[in-house]
Amino acid sequence: MGDLAQEAFYSFRHSVHIHAEETAQVRDNTFAFGTCFVKVEVDMPLGRVKILDILNVHDSGRILNPATAEGQVHGGMAQGIGAALYEEQLIDPATGRLLNPNLLDYKIPTAMDVPDLRCLFVETDDPSGPYGNKALGEPPLMPPTPALRNAILDATGCAFYQIPMTQQRLVAKFKEEGLI
After folding, report:
1. What string of pLDDT tens digits covers the 180 residues of the chain?
2. Which CATH number belongs to the domain containing residue 102 in this structure?
């Protein structure tokens, strides 16, 4: 068996990966729900968005470890803020080369950009999840971006349809709308 594995994996002429595959069909799948509420202050001439308050609320079934669940939500909220206001891969159209491949040029929110994050849980007992829990991996990341977009719309009357809503894009839109 060792010779077969060696030949199959390292042969220059007949190299193939040895693998096994198994599939399971899930018949009962549940949905985790979440929402986000945001209050912002927008400095239109500078295109700066200051998050005054942000709250994520999630139904993730029974919360098994409250401290870990809260940390998971806070991480997702920070990522959602980054997606909404900062993070953008800039690609050179001629070469396909990434123009901002490091954290000096690729902007992410820092501790100064992320306000106090609040989260609440609506606990339900989900019969299809182990111990009644539901997902809490991706759900916290999803609602902050549209909530921030709608908070900016509410504060300024300007609707944005592209993220991130960078300072440059905000100022350009405010000028286009005659607000500055």
Report:
1. 888 777 777 776 766 666 778 877 767 777 888 999 999 999 999 999 999 999 999 998 999 999 999 999 999 999 999 999 999 999 999 999 999 999 899 999 999 999 999 999 999 988 887 888 888 989 999 999 999 999 999 999 999 999 999 999 999 999 999 999
2. 3.30.365.10
Task: Count structural domains, the chain.
Answer: 1
- The answer to whether the beta carbons of residues 37 and 147 sit under 8 Å apart is yes
Cα–Cα dist 155/23, whole Å: 49
Residue 137 is assigned to a structural domain of this protein: yes
Residue 90 structural domain = 26-176
